[in-house]
Task: inverse folding
């Protein structure tokens, strides 16, 4: 059972952090009780630490009194990861938002957890360097949250996800000790790889207080094209054609007809003209000559697959507008239905057509509006169920669709989450993908890090918090 912090413990936190960084007013508790999922639970207290030492002090007090503690970055997660499901304290890392160093000589950056992803990208690009991971939420999400969720994005196809760019971490354990993992080198095989274990651990193993990130040289040139097709099958065939042409795009995104219609309804900048059944966005980067050549080959592959049109962005402004239109798809879908249930499933490249067949089956059998877009290059397709929570019959069909979708994805040798994690929304489906033995080992790891079960209880494994 969890308790509430005693009045002396709250006074001690106020003494360490300063009273203005310890809040319990209702509107703030509501705000910090939700993430992008929109289904929250208010904490008792929201605290704003300014350093790892502050975090450790709060953790020790919560551990001593068995009070749940939930780390929070920017709150853009889609699976309720930052929601304090069991109440207690939200450890809001808002104040820890400094870029401590951009080290050009060693191709790395050292940051506090709540640096906004897009702000870091802009800062390193000014120094001629590049931080590739690009979740569509990059104008709001924080690097610490990206690490805790192992965020991906369009560029993951060529550059990999957040995991590939984390060299080292400073973290506070749920028992209050401050540890350092990894370091400043790309190679490091000393002991267990705790850095990689903490990446994607959804704030259940430790609180990340500093991140050392690997950077790469900024590509000299980038170009993007959009192509549209009569249907998804043709667009997927074009993807195969682009890859067969020897092009490794920096990003390869697919948008289906439901998304295109939603974008148009919201007056969004065009990805494809009216009537298109699907669209692809293909970006290439590298040296200017290679980029021109690869863009030409990608355009030819799209045309060979039967594209209705292929248009390359003429300049950086058009390129930026196209990516903004792609990022705005989430908002367009949100406006298209009272609720959007977004699942970020992923399948091996060759099984993408089977995934779209499975989604068509769900549309047909369960009479649901389902919109698909995503990172088709790496098989990570966002399947959005557009529903009305006030319609119980439709919600029941949506839950049936969710289960059938996850079963189909696992049968296709894919994964039920490529980016958003389990949080509390996908707990019931964990066993579809992981064996009982694997889940038991993960539970033992959780127990080793967090013997009192206070850190972000109610996530990934429901029973840990019971
Ligand atoms: C419009 C939109 C588009 C999105 N597009 C993408 C996308 O393309 N790719 C993608 O991967 N995701 C995407 N997301 C999901 C989300 O932005 C990512 O999961 C992001 O990494 C979350 O970062 P955050 O700072 O908001 O974390 P939060 O939501 O605050 O927290 C997420 C999880 O991380 C934990 N956490 C946060 N900070 C820390 C820390 N310092 N130490 C330990 N644990 C911590 C929390 O406890 C929680 O479990 C999108 C979300 C939205 C709303």
Result:
């Amino acid at each position: 059972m969890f308790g509430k912090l005693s009045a002396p413990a709250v006074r001690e936190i106020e003494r360490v952090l300063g009273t203005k960084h310890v809040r319990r007013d209702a509107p703030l508790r509501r705000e910090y009780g939700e993430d992008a999922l929109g289904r929250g639970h208010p904490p008792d207290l929201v605290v704003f630490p300014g350093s790892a030492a502050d975090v450790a002090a709060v953790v020790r007090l919560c551990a001593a009194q068995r009070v749940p503690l939930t780390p929070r970055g920017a709150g853009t997660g889609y699976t309720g990861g930052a929601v304090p499901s069991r109440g207690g304290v939200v450890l809001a890392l808002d104040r820890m938002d400094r870029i401590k160093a951009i080290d050009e000589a060693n191709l790395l950056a050292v940051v506090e957890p709540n640096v906004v992803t897009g702000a870091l990208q802009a800062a390193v690009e000014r120094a001629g360097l590049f931080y590739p991971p690009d979740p569509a939420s990059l104008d709001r999400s924080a690097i610490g949250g990206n690490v805790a969720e192992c965020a991906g994005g369009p560029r993951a196809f060529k550059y990999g996800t957040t995991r590939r760019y984390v060299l080292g971490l400073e973290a506070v354990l749920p028992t209050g000790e401050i540890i350092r993992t990894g370091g400043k080198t790309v190679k490091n095989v000393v002991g267990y790889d705790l850095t990689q274990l903490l990446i994607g651990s959804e704030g259940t193993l430790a609180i990340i207080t500093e991140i050392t990130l690997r950077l790469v040289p900024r590509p000299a040139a980038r170009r993007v094209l959009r192509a549209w097709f009569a249907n998804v099958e043709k667009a997927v065939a074009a993807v195969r054609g682009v890859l067969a042409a020897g092009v490794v795009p920096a990003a390869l995104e697919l948008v289906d007809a439901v998304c295109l219609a939603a974008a148009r309804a919201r007056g969004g900048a065009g990805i494809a003209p009216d009537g298109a059944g699907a669209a692809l966005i293909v970006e290439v980067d590298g040296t200017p000559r290679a980029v021109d050549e690869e863009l030409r080959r990608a355009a030819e592959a799209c045309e060979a697959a039967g594209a209705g049109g292929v248009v390359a962005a003429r300049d950086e402004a058009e390129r930026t507008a196209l990516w903004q239109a792609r990022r705005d798809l989430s908002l367009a879908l949100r406006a298209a239905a009272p609720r959007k249930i977004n699942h970020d499933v992923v399948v091996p490249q060759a099984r993408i057509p089977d995934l779209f067949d499975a989604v068509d089956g769900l549309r047909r059998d369960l009479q649901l509006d389902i919109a698909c877009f995503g990172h088709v290059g790496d098989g990570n397709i966002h399947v959005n169920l557009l529903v009305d929570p006030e319609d119980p019959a439709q919600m029941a069909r949506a839950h049936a669709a969710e289960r059938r979708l996850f079963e189909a994805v696992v049968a296709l040798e894919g994964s039920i989450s490529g980016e958003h994690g389990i949080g509390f929304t996908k707990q019931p489906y964990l066993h579809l993908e992981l064996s009982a033995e694997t889940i038991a080992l993960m539970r033992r790891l959780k127990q080793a890090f967090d013997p009192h079960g206070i850190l972000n209880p109610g996530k990934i494994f429901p029973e840990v918090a019971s």
About this structure: The mean pLDDT is 95. DSSP finds 16 helices and 18 strands in the chain.
